[in-house]
Amino acid sequence: MPKVTISSVIDAPVEQVWARIRDFNGLPDWHPRMVESHIEDGKDASTIGCVRNFQLASGARLREKLVHFSDDDFLVSYSILETPQPLTNHKATLQLRRITDGDRTYAEWTASFDAAPEEADKLAEGMGANVFQGGFNALKSHFAGQG
Hints:
It comes from Mesorhizobium australicum. By secondary structure, this protein is of the alpha+beta class.
């Protein structure tokens, strides 16, 4: 089971970063690879079990289910239900933590999944570099110069 862990430091208070990313349906608002998203069945985006259906800039569509959400812990966990990627049993968590030195945010995005051995490293690398680090880079750019 491949595991991916990407972390970053964002120069903004954790409450500001969380406000930007907390909406489970809001990926297109902050992540450059996501272009459209909706929550299926009219559910609220913070309801455990809701499913976001979104499109990537590449045109691919994914469906992900919210499995844990905590404003207190600045945490969201989800699993992929449908993806064009050859992977199964996916679970990911995005969590923010307060850095008191400079009132910054430590962000960590982790995932685990099952994939064929010949695909696993490539999938993990793409998820880490393109999705997770790409999201963190967009957040860092957004908050750069804000004080």
